Amino acid sequence: MPSDTPEQQPPHPDEDLDVLAADDAAEEIEEVDHDNDMAMDSGDEDEELTLVNDAIAYFDEPQDSLFTIAQHPVHPSLVALGGSAGAHDDAPGAGWVVDTSAAQSRPVLPASFASDPSAAAAADRPPPTALASLYALEGHTDSINSLCWTLPAGEVLVSGGLDGRLRAWRADAKPSSGLTMTPLGETQEVEEVNWLAACPSPAHPNTVALGANDGSVWVYTIDPSDASNALQIVQSYFLHTAACTAGTWTPDGRLLATVSEDGTLYVWDVWGEAAARGSVDSNGQTAVAMSPEDQRFEVEGGLYSVAIDPKATFVAVGGAGGAIKIVSLPRLGGAPTTQQGKKSGGGGGGADATTGGQILASLHTQSDGVETLAVTLAQTTPATVLLAAGSVDGSICVYDATRRFAVRRHIVGAHEEHSVVKVEFVKNSWTLTSCGMDGVVRRWDLRGSAVGVGAQATGGPAAPHDGGLIKEWKGHRGDGEGGGVLGFVQGETGERVVTAGDDGVSLVFEA
């Protein structure tokens, strides 16, 4: 063992060089036993990834994110997709129409396979079907972020983009000749289109509304037979002072409700029916006008989602911080009244029930912004009205409107820590479908009365015995890796779910 004071060595010819000391050179290094040696951590290169794809079909022609999806109202297999990039770098906005009927259903496995997962995995099941584009939607110079087919027959497909353009195509779908798309033209009145909504009124076919980043709201009627002047402005509104973030029509198409980042809610009397019944505000444009000036309605941070119940009795709006406000709507079914218009801007809290504008409830169960709302009339006796809210905090909260909006189910962590992007009920049912930035689509059975369930206790998605999870579909990248599901359609029956993915892929799942 060397002493603490090393012996003085004679000068070395290359004394300026760093050389290995003699004592270190004599040290022997034991041979490594490679059989028992632990592998070095090589980072992500050795990470084992488990890829799951539950889809029966896919469409992967897009080169970048898909932001929006719309389903034909008469031919549900026809789906339009819109995104941020086409096949070339000089096509920053692009869309496609695909036919999902080409997707082959997978055979139902016999009951004996249920007890043997390995046998089920080894079963001869067809691989996912690759879908081809029927038609490419061109002409936008920036991302297509909104699409809709006009009602009631889907005669026109309308697209809205971040370039402010509104474009329309006549759609001729015939079983014998397939799909023919004919450009009808475009218009541009705003800098950015935020959303599109088709009017369901049979008295006003082929009508759409849009909301813009400058707060304006526009209503167009499209004449598919007049290529020279197909898009005609019906109304335009400018009461919102910040971006108009969401909008929806009443189920009968008589009124249009929109919300804004400035915290305002306006229910527009587009066709003058509220005015004919004396249920219009003094501004002459709205049947209901709510603003933060009424502190009971104030939502700090703005409003971002809106939904109306199937009977058009109330409108629900969701905003920052998990806040939800429920406001009554005017009743337009009876004979016109002689009542004079209400005062605008104050919130209408003291208005008569028949004129709307009353705050029915203020809800605050979730901890972050409410980005999506959905309402259903579940088949019970009497019928049950359910309101579902999806939040940035990853939870879904379901309220029972027939019980003064009591919390029926709070599924904490429905999409783990990732934002819930969309919730939608299968029509007239207890079944709710949701998607999120985790890249997963889930389906829930909301029968029962569980409250406060989910990942709060389990650390993951709610299980069937607590949150009512009955199905989940995976295939998108998700998990914060730019692969969240940004939208889906499921028709009226929910038999097939088609997605729009942030990873540039659309998947078809089968229930």
Automatic annotation (TrEMBL):
Signal peptide region: none
Taxonomic classification: Eukaryota, Fungi, Dikarya, Ascomycota, Pezizomycotina
Domain of life of the organism encoding this protein: Eukaryota
PROSITE patterns for the chain: WD_REPEATS_1, WD_REPEATS_2, WD_REPEATS_REGION
Protein name: 60S ribosome biogenesis protein Sqt1
Region annotation (Disordered) ranges: 335-356
WD repeat coordinates: 137-169, 237-270
PANTHER family in the cross-refs: ANGIO-ASSOCIATED MIGRATORY CELL PROTEIN, MITOCHONDRIAL DIVISION PROTEIN 1-RELATED
Keyword Disulfide bond attached: no
Keywords: Repeat, WD repeat
